[in-house]
Design brief:
Elements lengths: L9 E4 L3 H11 L3 E8 L5 H4 L6 E8 L2 E7 L11 E6 L2 H12 L11 E3 L5 E6 L2 H5 L5 H10 L7 H9 L2
Parallel strand pairs: 1-4, 5-7
Antiparallel strand pairs: 2-3, 3-4, 6-7
Length: about 170
Amino acid sequence: MPLAQKISPFLWFDSQAEDAAKFYTSTFRNSRIVAVNRYTEAGKEIHGRPPGSVMTVAFELEGQSFTALNGGPVFKFNEAISLVIRCDTQDEIDYYWEKLTAGGDANAQQCGWLKDKFGVSWQVVPSILPDLFKDAASPGAQRAMQAMLQMKKLDVAKLKAAYDGK
């Protein structure tokens, strides 16, 4: 099946690619696992994986294609790359925050960033955020930025109140 997008994220896991894909597709409503490919005997001396074990999992989250690879412990995730979830409501922010921090680390980061149980960094942000900061010199943007810097999980009402000077 050809991919609908030219560029898509490819995530390297030690051996949790299928577990991660199942977790993510259970978290995001419009999601599915597209294909699971397995290692073969060929190349075993290089990849070191048992034939028949999961090599890659193609999956979609909200229409966005991803591939997860069981590539071994050579590389680890870090905050240099994160996945952004733009949320229209506080309920949506709360939902993703709760789901993605389960077994992960919501305390290590701030400003809407979290790290899930697989080590992947996410930003759970309100869709209004660009509007609050579009004029960086405005007093409202300054107040909203100051408020955001004090938060881990973002609070839409508090960000709006800070912007409005309340």
